[in-house]
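Weekly structure sync - notes
Attendees: PM, LS, DV (DV joined late)
Agenda: review two folding runs queued last week.

Item 1: First target. Sequence and structure tokens pasted below for the record.
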Amino acid sequence: MQDIMRPDAVPDGSSQVDARRPRATALRLRVINLLAVTVPFAGLVVAIALLWGVAFNWVYLALLGGMYFATALGISVGYHRLFTHRSFKTPRPVAAILAALGSMAVEGPVLQWVAVHRCHHQHSDDHDDPHSPHTHGAGLWGIVRGMWHAHMGWLLRAHPRGLAKYVRDLRKDPLVRRMSQLFPVWVLLGLFIPAALGGLLTLSWTGVLLGFIWGGLVRIFLVHHVTWSINSVCHIWGARPFHNHDESRNNAIFGVLALGEGWHNNHHAFPTSARHGLRWWQFDVTYLIIWAMSKIGLARDVRIPSRDRIAAKRCG
């Protein structure tokens, strides 16, 4: 598959005009990608500003931020680094809490999420990848189709067959099976908590409704699109310090918004690492949480690649 992000990847004998086409395509792709990422968030910020003091204030900002942080960590610490990649171990009550918080993000039961993600790693950016943006044809239209598919279009299709084989180990764990079966309960709880807190903090039914909207529905919207951007944006736009035989990339924006998950090229180079931000400046909130857990006995056997192994795999 030709790398659309490498402007110098021009077939032998191509003219100078042909050589400029991949550059123009890559530029258009980055512009479209940037707009798709920033415009919805800008719209949300404008809506918050316009509604401040009417249907939004510090109470609802705290509910939105708190629920976002808790459920995003449920995905990054729990679903991803604990259950999918086994990058650390934790006591079973903590594992149960992380599974519940991840479920509150409404991205599917833990067994389903893990199966899809492990399938993605095995087939990253080939035709069996459930959500690659690079298998939908050439040209601008193929790029747009690929971005849509990788971001959320894949969710509207039937899941690939044979996903159960990717979670045979987890299916043997009664706790994980039970937490996965109770997915609808955790989803409802994730909506009930901000609604109840909104009512208690404002002593009003309006607070219940607005807590439900901001800490529930809007928070789910934000977590979804940040998580989905790892599938789309982080396979299109960013740096590639490691050759991983795929198009995974480090994207600093989602390194922050996704609590460290945006250092995606690093992750594909070292999938079982609990730390994705491998440079001092690559802020990785999720790893900091795991590190803090390890200091108080809530995480053990935390897996991190050695400096020599990182250096050996780095490009150039």
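Item 2: Second target, run right after the first with the same settings.
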Amino acid sequence: MSYFKNWVSKYRKQLNGLLQTILFILTCIATTLAGAEWTFGYSLYNTNVEYTWEMFCSGLPFSISFLSILTAHEFGHYFVAKFYRVKTSLPYYIPLPPFPLSLGTMGAIIRLRQRVPTNIQNFDIGIAGPLAGFVVAIGILWYGFTHLPDESYIFSIHPEYAIYGSDFAKHVYENNPEAVMIKVGDNLLFYFFKHFVADSASLPNSYEIMHYPLLFAGFLALVFTSLNLLPIGQLDGGHVLYGLVGYKRHKTIASIVYLLLLFYAGLGLLTPTMPLEDLVLYIGLYVFFLYLCLQGLKLERQTTIMLACLLFALQFLTSYLFPTVIGYPGWLLFAFFIGRMGIAHPPSLIEIPLNLTRKILGWIALIIFIASFTPAPL
């Protein structure tokens, strides 16, 4: 055992490099399989069709686009960390198995192997990733929206739509309530591209954007960018906000943003119209879930319990007064994870006021967050 530990210690760098390479290759394969399924419906799980190399390669436009944005994001962090001589790792890509409707990856992370000493360095490392990924995402979206195929493209994927011609949307989406369809939500940037960049004659319906790999990859990148820029904890947006306003104000703003995220995410999850026996069962479980999330605020136990009950009560009352207003439960899992990691940003060892350039970049990052955030992505 001692020999094995010594061997691992001696070749740790090479083993880490091997692991990172394997994870990257697996992520490339998984995102390509995902791209083929999202774009053309080519699934490994369709036993009635022999999966071919051509089917696999059809997922490359999505895979290359998505991973290019993700890689730009992570290396933005990496190069700035290296500039400041902060010990860091190369990116660890996180592949996802090719289950139905998988994206093929949960993203990538780099490991900072030492504490970043100053708020300036924290700010620069934190903001570099989102800015780099955002620039690449905008480029891919611009190309995708200015090179849209005509409607024969969607008929090649859905031949059944062709019988309706250009009027297929009304028949497929409005008069087919039992069909399982996935609609891509809008954000301000997508609204801009749709109305001011794209040719309206070739613009795909929101239910079909998943079949356009550059648009879908760019859209997902915007979603992940906005989540990274949430001004909470040690997310990239948390680093940015901490640099802009300092520890105390960051803690207050981050707590408010986190509570708003939880409130919106759970809207409509439990409503007064549900059967009483279901409410009795699920209210306790849901309030306990909120309690676990809110522990990230580092409040006293009794205060956390009261806050969880109050948050649920406000959601329930909103559902009663405005039954058509619903949130997006998909954010609850994300809120749980960031709540467990902590809402406040740990104080830096050295505090230095930001210069004007950094302040401008910080506000630009906030604008990017607002323009990229999609209340209900899918």
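Discussion on item 2: The beta strands are 92-95, 105-109.
Action: LS to circulate a short write-up before next sync.
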